[in-house]
HTH tetR-type domain-containing protein
Amino acid sequence: MYHVNMDVRRSTAKQRRAEAIVAGMRVFADHGLMTSSIQQVADEIGVSQPYVFRLFGSKHAFFLACLDEMERQMLELIRQAAATSPDDPLSAMRSGFREMLADGVITGLWLQACAAARRDETVAARCRAVISAILEEVARLTDAGTDGLARNLADGALVVMLQAVGVDLAGGSLAAIDSLRVEKTIP
């Protein structure tokens, strides 16, 4: 008797959209909004380029969807850190943030978004909304006031910059700063 494998399923548009966003975050992180190719994403997830456009409507909308996913991931990290380390949620958040940045995707996507924001008010507004949502969630889950929020935002920006240029962050930001300091001697 011949048996047909009935477990072969076609992905739904929702599943393909999620796959495209994961791939898109990497592609946009490496190539930016203007120079990235939707074909790269389509090839990676095994669909046609027009199908990716049907999922998002435009390359710009696709980029914004990737920023939405980045925000979702960051908020999830913040909430998990607060839940698992209620005595010191800020330290857990900082540690989780460094881990999240390790593969370079979030760092690259954020830097590309900031670059695009210089000329694109929609992207700039979305970047401001991401920062606002993160600040609000950290404030809600910690006792950090405006000074603490500003310090943590500045530290996060420093970590992003250092990670982007390949500085070893294993020992923390201060150790990374020390590693970059070069004593100048006057001959």
Notes: The first helix runs from residue 13 to 35. The CA atoms of residues 51 and 57 lie 10 Å apart.
